[in-house]
C-alpha cells in the first residue's frame, strides 16, 4: 500500500514539565476523514498541536508526504500543507468575512478560489461584508474552515468543530466536511460528539492518557459499540 499522507509514531509531547502525549501512533491516508475520540483531557487537542509544532517539546516521528517534520518549526509545517483550525476559531473581529478569508497567505498550489468557497458556504457569501463580531458561532466555524481551504493546505486538522453549536448547524458542518472530502481534502478531526463523528469519518482512534487505546473503522462500529461506550460513555 502507498505510504499514508500522515504517519505519526511514538509521538511524545510536553507543556513545560507536564508530559501529555505518551507515544501517539496514528495514520491518515489521503482523502480520508479520521477522528480522534476521547474524554476531556485525553490528549486529543495536544495531538493536533504537537503535529503542528505548537507544544513546548516533542519527540517521536511526524511524517507528512514522506517528509519528517518532528523537528520542524510550525511555519515550515504549514508550508508543507498541514493546517490547524483551533477550537477557538481565531476569527479577527475587526475584519469582515472576505478580509478574514483573504488574510492567510497561500502556502502551496491547490487551494480553492474565493468564488468556489462562497459556493460551498453560501451563508458566508451573504455575510461577506459583515465584521467577525457579527457572525454566529456556526458562521464563525464555517469561516475558520473556509479560510484554510484557500491556502492550499492538503491536510485539515479540525478541533471540536461542532462544540456549542445547535443541531441544525452541526448537520451543516457535517455536510461541509463530506463536501471537502469529496473535493480531495484530507481531514483529521477531534470530536467528543461520537454520533456526529460516525456520520463523517472513515475511521476512528480512541485516545486515553495521551496514547491510542483502540481503533475502529466505520464498518466495524456496530460490533464495537460496547467498547466505545466504556471508553467514551456514549
TrEMBL record:
Family (UniProt): Belongs to the ABC transporter superfamily.
MF annotations from Gene Ontology: ATP binding; ATP hydrolysis activity; branched-chain amino acid transmembrane transporter activity
UniProt keyword list: Amino-acid transport, ATP-binding, Nucleotide-binding, Transport
Superkingdom of origin organism: Bacteria
PANTHER family given in the database record: HIGH-AFFINITY BRANCHED-CHAIN AMINO ACID TRANSPORT ATP-BINDING PROTEIN LIVF (PTHR43820)
SUPFAM superfamilies recorded: P-loop containing nucleoside triphosphate hydrolases
Domain ABC transporter: 6-234
GO biological process: L-amino acid transport
Protein name, as recorded: ABC transporter ATP-binding protein
InterPro entries from the UniProt entry: AAA+_ATPase, ABC_transporter-like_ATP-bd, ABC_transporter-like_CS, BCAA_Transport_ATP-bd_LivF, P-loop_NTPase
PROSITE patterns recorded: ABC_TRANSPORTER_1, ABC_TRANSPORTER_2
Species of provenance: Teichococcus aestuarii
Top-level taxonomy: Bacteria, Pseudomonadati, Pseudomonadota, Alphaproteobacteria, Acetobacterales
Stored CDD domains: ABC_TM1139_LivF_branched (cd03224)
